[in-house]
Amino acid sequence: MTVLDWAEHAAKLFEPSPSAKYLRDPALWAEDKLGVHLWSKQRAIFESVTTNRRTAVKSCHGAGKSFSAGALAAWWIDTHPPGEAIVVSTAPTYKQVHAVLWEEIRKQHRKGGLDGTVTLDDEWKVGDILVGMGRKPADHDAHGFQGIHRRYVLVLLDEACGIPAPLWDAVEAITTNDDARILAIGNPDDPNTQFGTVCGPGSGWNVLQISSFDTPNLSGEWVPEYMRPLLPSREWVDDAAKRWGEDSPVYKAKVLGEFPDASENTLIRPDWILAAQQRTLPAIGERTLGVDVARYGTDQTVIIARAGDHARVLNTWQGQATTATTGQVIHAQQTHIADAINVDGVGVGGGVVDMLTEQGYPVQDMQAGSAARDTGKFANARAEWFWGLRERFEQGDIDIDPNDDELATQLGQIRFEYTSRGQIKIESKDDMLKRGVTSPDRADALALAYAIPKHYKTPSRIH
Questions:
Q1: Helix 102-112 × helix 65-79 angle, to 10°
Q2: Which of 12, 71, 300, 341 could be joined to 363 by an S-S link, Cβ 3.0–4.6 Å?
Q3: Are residues 212 and 282 in the same domain?
Q4: pLDDT(192) > 80
Q5: Which residues are CB-contacts of 367 (< 8 A; sequence separation ≥ 6)?
Q6: Are 392 and 449 in contact (CB under 8 A)?
Q7: Do 232 and 275 reside in the same domain of the chain?
């Protein structure tokens, strides 16, 4: 063998494996293996995971969080030796684990033609070696991932704001070595969570933020046309500002990618609202309609149906005659088979109360400014109703629509104060309007649905 032959042979011995060039460049891997373009913030996430043991991403809605996490999982397994690497993921609910992140992992696995099999049980196996798993352990289970021992462990915490502290502890226990990585990603809905803590100063995490204004449709960054419908649009952001208000906790979390402030006089804390959206309670028990009747302009008439601890908006509309509103309420009562109809009887709502009373329906005339049942504690009936609602959220005795961002926004904007006599008083609608907050019609209807009138009469059902 000549000297040249020996040199070529030696070069081959020390030639990096095909995956070696991708170890420090997952963005290049995604482009070569998956044929996808990554926009700037996605590349920043990928780069952070390669260089930092812990990465937290507080992101706006619709920025491609699950795609990024799924692609990182696929990159991790494709570029590390089987048996030495594993991807572990969790989320607040099984649905988020199975139908969101692991559905994305299954898609990336097929698209890249990667080794092994990704099952509908949210496991990835190469031969008989388990290289990936998605789990939703019990919230209190600090040993939820016990027994995982690999050199290269990547943990993905999807929708991280809803993951309880014990599971964060479990994740820390399996990522103690230098080659392990954690990516926590989600909407920053609640600062009073472990996700809020790790996104704070001095946490030791590398923290990234994605605002809707960073995304290509608003920033002007070039991306292929196929990506634009998948990202937030200018119209959606403008509509969010109009519907929620730019000071709204929901706007801050879902548009700006920022944790909302929770001031001392906030009536219902963001974490209580988020928990109520994620909670599933049976729709059994007393059935009541809460009806907030619109007075003018852009205000809405809202009907909320309550069945025990379960409450949902049935209908909303604007600018309708009281006769038509009465007909809508009667239809809702007959559909929901309500035991009571609590109607805001102030102003035009009084006409609805009168017509329902005349026809024999179980209507309660709810006067927000009337005296509370507990006059020592509350300035008026409205304060008593809303404080009762606050206690339901605090104690976990209410289940609201997880997709009703308008209701969540309105609940998070209501403030309270104390009178000179030490009574609790809810901020008036006029004062809310002065600080740019629109009428909380849905929140009012929800409070009415759970309110107990001062002079309560046991209603009889009408069939």
A1: 50
A2: 341
A3: no
A4: no
A5: 345, 346, 381
A6: no
A7: no
- Angle (CA) 261-310-304 rounded to 5° is 80
Q: Is the Cβ–Cβ distance between 250 and 299 less than 8 Å?
A: no
* Interstrand relation of 287-292 and 301-307 (parallel, antiparallel or unpaired): antiparallel
CATH of the domain at 369: 3.30.420.240
Q: Does some domain include residue 460?
A: no
Which tokens belong to 63?
């920025």
pLDDT(228) > 60: yes
Contacting residues for 128 by C-beta, under 8 A, at least 6 apart: none
Q: Specify whether 17 is located in the same domain as 165.
A: yes
Residue 39, phi-psi category: left (phi > 0), alpha (psi -120 to 50), beta (remainder): beta
Q: What is the pTM of this model?
A: 0.64
- Is 313 among the domain residues? yes
257 inside domain: no
Min mean pLDDT across 86-90, 334-338, 457-461 is at: 457-461
- Rounded CA separation 190/58 (Å): 11
Same domain, 22 and 125: yes
308 with 409, same domain: the answer is: yes
DSSP 8-state assignment for residue 379 = S
* Structural domain containing residue 398: 270-450
Q: What is the pLDDT of residues 74-87, one digit of tens each?
A: 999 999 987 899 99
Helix (H, G, I), strand (E, B) or coil at 404: coil
Per-residue model confidence as pLDDT tens digits over 230-264: 999 999 999 999 888 887 778 899 999 998 876 66
Q: What is the mean pLDDT of residues 3-21?
A: 49
Total residue length of the chain = 463
The total domain count for the chain is 2
To which residue do tokens 């696995």 refer? Answer: 109
CATH number of the domain at 232, please: 3.40.50.300
Is-contact 186 159, C-beta < 8 A?
Answer: yes
3-state secondary structure of 430: helix
Same-domain status, 231 and 295: no
Query: Where is average pLDDT lowest: 63-67, 198-202, 262-266, 431-435?
Result: 262-266
